[in-house]
Amino acid sequence: MPYDPSAFPPFAVTVDLVVLTVRGHALCALVVRRGESPYRGRWALPGGFVRIDEDLEAAAARELAEETGLHAQGSDEPHGGVHLEQLATYGDPRRDPRMRVVSVAYLVLAPDLPTPTAGGDAHSVRWAPVDTLVAAGDEHGGEGKRPDPLAFDHGRILADGVERARSKIEYSSLATAFCPPEFTVGELRRVYEVVWGVALDPRNFHRKVTGTPGFLVPTGGTTTRQGGRPAQLFRAGGATLLNPPMLRPEI
Amino acid sequence: MPYDPSAFPPFAVTVDLVVLTVRGHALCALVVRRGESPYRGRWALPGGFVRIDEDLEAAAARELAEETGLHAQGSDEPHGGVHLEQLATYGDPRRDPRMRVVSVAYLVLAPDLPTPTAGGDAHSVRWAPVDTLVAAGDEHGGEGKRPDPLAFDHGRILADGVERARSKIEYSSLATAFCPPEFTVGELRRVYEVVWGVALDPRNFHRKVTGTPGFLVPTGGTTTRQGGRPAQLFRAGGATLLNPPMLRPEI
DNA sequence: CCAATAGTGTCTTTGAGACAATATACA
DNA sequence: TGTATATTGTCTCAAAGACACTATTGG
């Protein structure tokens, strides 16, 4: 394969973002309303073109900042920002009717933040519960009904991101990425309950997470923001892999 | 973003293949010797350009067939071929000195086959033990020494593929992808031992895999190809996720 | 007082890990 | 016979799940 610019077909490369957070009792995704054709007026995942001299992850972090004001934790910002990881790449030749576009999707996990939108080129931004965007049991285009399907193949991308988040909080400490810097065991438990859509025993959960080495570090403070008896505050510990893992209840 | 072909920067998109198999007592990867500059004469992962009307996975399956003669199991071939799944996408602006190339890597798991090379445009193809290509503990550019570094960032891609295989056989039935259609419990155990680089207790392993529902289906036949008492032959069961998972010994 | 949440303790069951013992081939 | 591998069984310990009970706030 000698170097000949005309020898390779030209592709456009974009990044799309699956930005998830836990709001109230729902797992929510960030969606933007499209102002242009195709899919004008439909909701879509935030994203945009990768620049010619830009790394893929840098493009994802830039789009995230432009459309939400969130800053990803990267090499320059090891702990301050939200979690960002590559999800998968989507390149069906007909996924964009205009041209051949390969999109590298990234998954972002963020704590519940006061205002989702932070300006940019998106006319409208909102947090939408994921089960209003992808019907349950419809992960890969099944039988469920989608009330308001996302543009392009973004429904599929979102479903893949949600599935990644659901499985990854099992064996990693990633659930803390949905929490503020200091949080209680009850708040962490609510993250698991909302993401998995199950109820967990508060007593067993407490024993489990406080007994897993490196998962939680007590800060010494307490809070009563959940009501009831004051709860200890924790920060995320250094551990990234949980051993033993959290077990998702079956069926 | 209106449609304007000059508005987006042109990228080349390729697929690279991490093809793994278990040969003897080593986990091996398929590598091809480069006949062209850059990295002429160096070993590299098989791969090539994605065609303008070709799906990414189709491009990966095509390159796999062209360079190895292996057929992936896809929509048209649900059970006959080898396992193929998307691994990750690599798009550092300087990963190819000639031009901006985004490469979508795919992971292929194959049983030990008689002849690795099946013709094509690769001058030289071989199975190489992965620990001769990526030094242990050197998964992401650490302190180990690489005897013969792969071209481009293929060492990194291979390390990511090996790590994916190592973690995925824990909680899925994917280890059977390294086995022939009919295999014994001892052969399956050797897959785990080679991929993880550990020794497993044959008795506990036998009890575990035969007790996991849907993992193994006895065919009724037996074989003595491993020596010793004849062993039952099994096929892979329908289960894809193992519950409970296989546990990788720690430390 | 009651309601709500936090946190501890206790019991049962499941399963992993260690390892003895038996089964059945080949040399 | 000995050696190699397969397969079953048994014991112990760790951890998950169910759930009683206590602790500490606010109304």
From TrEMBL, chains A, B:
Q: Does the keyword Ligase apply?
A: no
**InterPro entries, alphabetically?**
Nudix_hydrolase, NUDIX_hydrolase-like_dom_sf, NUDIX_hydrolase_CS, NUDIX_hydrolase_dom, WH-like_DNA-bd_sf, WH_DNA-bd_sf, WHD_NrtR
The record, for Pfam families, names: NUDIX, WHD_NrtR
Instruction: Describe the location of the Nudix hydrolase domain by residue ranges.
Output: 10-152
Q: Which UniProt keywords apply?
A: Hydrolase
Family as reported in the entry's similarity comment: Belongs to the Nudix hydrolase family.
The scientific name of the source species is Streptomyces taklimakanensis
What name does the UniProt record give this protein?
NUDIX domain-containing protein
One annotated GO molecular function: hydrolase activity
